[in-house]
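Researcher: We're teaching a course module on how sequence relates to structure. For the next exercise, students receive a sequence and then see the predicted structure as tokens, so they can try to spot secondary structure elements on their own. Here is the exercise chain.
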Amino acid sequence: MRRFRILPVLLLALVAAPSAARAQLGVDFTAPVDFTNSSWSLGWSFTVLNPFNVTALGFYDAGKDGLTESHDVGIFSNTGTLLTSVTVTNSDPLTSFWRFASITPFSLGIGTYVIAGVTGSESYPLQSPGGTLFSSDISYGTDWYTASGTLVFPTSSSATDASNAAWLAVNFIGDTPNHAEAVVPEPATMTLLASGLVGLAASARRRRIKQS
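Model: And here is the predicted structure for the students to work with:
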């Protein structure tokens, strides 16, 4: 009967194996139209549908050929409190159309937030880039902007919706922990399973010897 007590433990170990996290861009698109218009602190609001950790903030690299200056990017609460920020530079890695600077992972719970960045003289995408797709963990709110050379909470809006999303110069990478998907067990879990199976085989062999 011992093997029937061991087997549930092994199965529990497999079930308890850590799930892979799922990293997504906050937004992505395929056909942007670039625009330049003085210096603004601009961005867009979004509602978190499924909590996740923000691991990087990004600024749009027109032409994917390098930023002409550095850009402060941050995420604010919907009441204007700056929650996390970073300066994106030309040396930061390019993912899709944005250069992303890593941050200490910051947890965003269910609620509404605003991501904004300082444009400076950089070009950025105008409204409704072609093929726009938002992360499945959020829903787009609207555009927000304020004329400013520094990162401030933007307070004006053209009331765009997801079908005509605007000011997508800023972006984030969201990492959803323990995303449910098929995962290969970690080596330690496989070692535990193998040891248990060896133990079961040895136990069965001893019983056969005694019975004979």
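Model: If you want an answer key for the exercise: Confidence is low (pLDDT under 50) at residues 1-19, 179-194. DSSP finds two helices and 14 strands in the chain.
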